[in-house]
Amino acid sequence: MQAKKEIGLAIVGSGRIGTLRGKLAKMHPSVRFIAVSDANPEAAEKLAKTIGADYWTTDNLEVMSLPEVNAIDIATSEHEHTVPLLAALDRGVPVLVEKPIALLEEDAKLVIAKAEALNSDLHIGYSRRYKNRYLIAKEQIVQGRLGVITGACARLYNSRSQCFAMLKRNKGATPVVDALTYYVDLMGWLLADNPVVEVFAKGQKGVIHAAGYDTEDVTWAILTCKDGAVVNLGVSYALPEKWPSVGHSARVELLGTHGTLLINDDHTDQIMQTDIGFPHVYLSDHKIETVFLESSTPGDWALGDFLGPIADETRAWLDYLSTGKPCNLAKPRDAIRTLAVTLAIEESARTGKTVYLTPN
Ligand SMILES: NC(=O)c1ccc[n+]([C@@H]2O[C@H](COP(=O)([O-])OP(=O)(O)OC[C@H]3O[C@@H](n4cnc5c(N)ncnc54)[C@H](O)[C@@H]3O)[C@@H](O)[C@H]2O)c1
To answer: Where on the tree of life does the source sit, at the highest rank (predicted)?
Structure first.
């Protein structure tokens, strides 16, 4: 039995995911101290009250520098990761940052340079890795049951309501860079040590463009990996406003020399119809009457417990910190590669040209 280290956690960014991480951390037996910050004082105070945190502030540096803090979660909005993340790395404690590592490659490079110079313990929360069906898929690959992966595909759908919410936060948080990114990471993890070297993509504009955003309704990409394996990735966040999914509707398929694995992650196997209306995790004023249960991307509350990928991912990271048990979260090199692939998909769709990537 390994000794358990006590954890003092600083959560920077007290929005939806910061709140969820905070609630989950509060339930973890090794977490003895939680302090939170947010640029918006109401958000920080609300989270502190909700979870009974030990301290709250609007000053990110202050919360990260508290003597009790020996781990930091950066849960700020996508375009606000870099500054607090660089400061967190300077503290020399383990850090978890939410996906994507950054929206711009130059920001991600600054982070990687610092993390490597300081030999930082940095993980990135690509929580698809902690959805049971994908972990079990990884196990089949590790056991060699698919043989050599020669091809794969993943496509991701969501409602336009969710797309507008993301783009309103930041125009760079597009369906490709902010959502398909999970499946780029997933493929990178499943097809380990076989980085993408070539990207070609096409997209078509429609309702999202008509609403004033320079973003496609549908984007399809063909990626070629170093050994020649071909991966087809696609995303549409333009499904009707009241599409029954409250998160990702996805399909993932893996084709190998010795096996094939098909994963239906559309959640159409659990359909509820309710006249009362079902709340959306991200959109407070959005109610749907038909819902695919378990389609919420982070997971679901059930009788006081939170079930699903973010619950398992948070627990895995905290277990890793307290006992040293290895976790499967993405590392900085995975995250910068994933960002480069998503940006290449957008560039190729925009220019009509193939983008070549050098594996890092
Ligand atoms: N893994 C998942 O399932 C999952 C799901 C949703 C979002 N995310 C990621 O989590 C992160 C946060 O998303 P969210 O949905 O919680 O967003 P949110 O808008 O609900 O919360 C972000 C919070 O950060 C605060 N903030 C922004 N800039 C700040 C700064 N410089 N300093 C301090 N606070 C600042 C905002 O005031 C806000 O309260 C994003 O990177 C997002 O992509 C992950």
So the answer is: Bacteria
Q: Is 131 in the pocket of ligand 1 (CB under 6 A)?
A: no
CB of 265 shorter than 6 A to ligand 1: no
Q: How far is the CA of 173 from the centre of ligand 1 (A)?
A: 12
- 157 burial (CB, 10 Å; 0-12 / 13-18 / 19+) is buried
15 lines ligand 1 (CB under 6 A): yes
Q: In whole angstroms, give the CA distance from residue 89 to residue 118.
A: 8
pLDDT in tens, 328-343: 999 999 999 999 999 9
Residue range 287-316, pLDDT digits in tens: 899 999 999 999 999 999 999 999 999 999
Those residues whose C-beta lies under 8 Å from the C-beta of residue 202, and which sit 6 or more positions away, are 219, 220, 348, 349, 352
State in Å: Cα 167 to ligand 1 middle.
13
User: What are 52-71's pLDDT values in tens digits?
Assistant: 999 999 999 999 999 999 99
- Residue of 17, 284, 338 to mutate, ligand 1, most atoms within 8 A of C-beta: 17
Q: How far apart are CA 202 and CA 345, in angstroms?
A: 8
Ligand 1 binding pocket includes 58 (Cβ within 6 Å) = no
* 165 in contact with ligand 1, CB cutoff 6 A: no
Distance CA 71, CA 78 (A): 20
β-strand partners of 235: 156, 219
